């Protein structure tokens, strides 16, 4: 027995014995709607449930907004701080801390009461937002974004963990779908909201908005959520450090950084054969190899325990989450660029033109939750999501300069429907196939893959866009400086480009953007690999082997 958890382990063992006796004495027919292990959990009353869900929704919405809300605010920020050289750091500082610490928060949720760890994550998120909102310079904004990323790493997985501990499995379906729907809507609507703040108030409101909503979340969690004791309990700093797997994290962090730098720089800033790119590739391979060895050596104390990731449902869920979220983020970042550059609309209007994706995703996220609850199986929806989304993604990648509303509205509909069908299912899988003790960490691993998928997709798509823009500008408008135009004049092409060259420039931008969208098309199709590994297990407790 692990000495770190001797007391909690004994308590858990006794509880398991009592639960086993109770299960043997209870009629089997009562197990259809609620599993035995769930009866031991303390479920929230309806009043508390509504309050807690409202608080979690506010936090997740703000956290997801932070992924994309800066997209339309960056030009104004760089104008004020004269910091165009820092553009990459505004996004990467947030994504790096978020990606790398998501799993660590999952560990903390298994060792300490979820309530208090969630409040710590929320406090970090609010402090980071405060720093970003009041910063006088670019360096302060980068630091604030990094702190915000630290907090956001625990908010999403924490919200799903709270839901998993507060209600029966079937009721979780709708709540998880609501959370995932809000997450997706906020991601897609981020540029619209950021554009409105930037155009009519100030870019600083992109961060101020987090403060009141975070306060409401804190009130709901403090007064309405009870602090349930974890099954595992870290006894002392030494035990905590052991379970956080600092050795593994020491290799995972730089490996992720190397990967993102390779994908961002390769083919755009430096040729693939450049010594910097080769060095980063070698560094990533070496660091990741050592990380895998460390995980195998540490087993249950690893950042990603091998016994979890070896389960087909879990590794399949990770692949599916990586791909479907990556596809969403690739389009979320680059479709507004197409609207603003090729169609010449404002930041606010480009967000409105993305509404077909938002509506399709929101409606189908909720509808899929209801249907999963009715039929009991999530596997069919995971099969359908890549098929439907790749149709929409493929159609969107065929957009032309003269494409009208029939095309850019009609093509978004199947893409949004596909995302809505699939986005919430990975979290349902995790809570259906695993024991309660493993759920918080598995949720964090899944959230990590979603975050990493989004980061990788954005990096690759942006690299493709930049390299293809240079190529097509040389063909269509050789007298235009592609690099300068891409950083200073994307949204004002009709004002800055000579009329005789405008059509060529628009064709170049259209080609570069649609080829960047191929990244989303590829990821949408690859999601089927993860979906096909998922077994047919009913959320009602009845299992059917595929």
**Number of domains in the coordinates?**
3
The first-level CATH class of the largest domain is given as Mainly Alpha
What overall geometry do the principal axes of the alpha carbons give? globular
> What's the main sheet like?
none
Low-confidence stretches: 6-40, 542-546
What is the fold-level CATH name, i.e. the topology of the largest domain? Answer: Growth Hormone, Chain: A
Q: Name the helix and strand elements from N-terminus to C-terminus, one letter apiece.
A: HHHHHHHHHHHHHHHHHHHHHHHHH
Q: What structural category characterises the helix and strand content?
A: mainly alpha
Count of DSSP-assigned helices: 25
Q: What fraction strand?
A: under 5%
The averaged pLDDT comes out at 80
Radius of gyration: 24 Å
- Count every beta strand, where a strand is a DSSP E run of 2 or more residues: 0
Quaternary structure annotation: single chain
CATH architecture of the largest domain: Up-down Bundle
What share of the residues lie within helices?
over 70%
- What is the CATH superfamily of the largest domain? MFS general substrate transporter like domains
Distance between the termini: 36 Å
Explain what the structure shows.
This protein is mainly alpha-helical. The chain has three domains: 42-239, Growth Hormone, Chain: A, CATH 1.20.1250; 246-302; 307-546, Up-down Bundle (Growth Hormone, Chain: A). The protein is built from 25 helices and no strands. It has helices spanning 6-25, 36-39, 46-68, 74-81, 87-111, 114-134, 138-166, 169-200, 205-208, 210-224, 237-244, 246-265, 275-298, 306-309, 312-341, 347-352, 355-375, 379-396, 405-410, 412-422, 425-433, 439-476, 482-488, 493-496, 499-532. It is globular. It starts with 5 loop residues before the first helix and ends in a 14-residue tail after the last helix.
